[in-house]
Amino acid sequence: MMTNDLHVIYDSILEGDMKAVPEQVQAALDAGALPDVILNVGMITAMTEVGRLIEEGDNLVPEMLISARAMQAGLAVLKPFLIESGVEPVGTVVIGTVKGDMHDIGKNLVAMMLEGAGFAIVDLGVDVEADKFLTAVQENKAQVVALSALLTTTMPRMKEVITALRDGGIGETTKIIIGGAPVTAAFAESIGADGYAVDASQAATVAKSLLS
Ligand code: B1M
Fold this sequence. Notes:
By secondary structure, this protein is of the alpha/beta class. The chain has helices spanning 4-15, 20-30, 35-56, 61-82, 105-116, 130-140, 156-167, 185-190, 200-211, and strands spanning 91-97, 119-123, 144-148, 175-179, 195-196. Helix content is 57%, strand content 11%. The chain starts with a helix and ends with a helix.
């Protein structure tokens, strides 16, 4: 059941209230709510509802965007609580959203969880060309590449990145993990990814286990 603190965050994300969300996230933290509960129950559920409203035709793309901005303002408050700092990096991850895909909230969460798990993060942002992943892996001697896609139309770009990395000489010791709402374990296997994760915390677990 959602407490009142989480309800107000949920409602403010749906309304796209960028000013209220960070204040309400801080208030929930002050009241003792756990950061991952605030994230999963108060915030991610709101974005799921935004998606459902879009599918039903009750919401428009601009509304989706203002909700996303409100969500990101809240995540900025939550970030320090999701990340433990001061540990020696266990490896370097190059992360980005594949070419043609502008969705970065999930990718940002994955980056936060990986950072929390002790990885150094090289975040290439959104709409990233395959070649840019290759260059970043070479320059940073990364052990893990993390690819995110939220659209069925951009999922095929993941295979192009994997091909570019392997053709570019990135050996099997560099592990490639993928995820995003339309991505499945079967798809990951079919395109030769080393790992798949359904959410951000699982991405950190998978990345760690692939390196051990
Ligand atoms: Co867009 N969008 N969007 N959108 N958007 C979806 C994805 C959609 C499902 C909405 C819908 O129609 N119901 C739909 C996709 C349909 C499909 O492909 N089958 C859609 C569409 C169609 C579009 C446009 C084409 C709309 C248009 O212009 N007509 C357009 C495309 C733009 C582009 O990318 N080229 C578009 C645009 C946008 C906005 C820019 C307005 C905005 C994004 C803002 C931003 O990210 N900065 C937006 C939003 C907000 C959404 C929804 C509503 C929410 C996405 C989100 O942030 N969820 C989304 C509907 C939905 O998801 N239900 C939708 C919260 C986030 C925490 O979850 O990103 O899934 P998610 O991340 C999860 C997991 O997937 C996983 O971990 C996270 C949780 O811990 N994960 C990984 C993600 N990456 C991972 C990588 C990993 C492992 C796990 O390993 C490396």
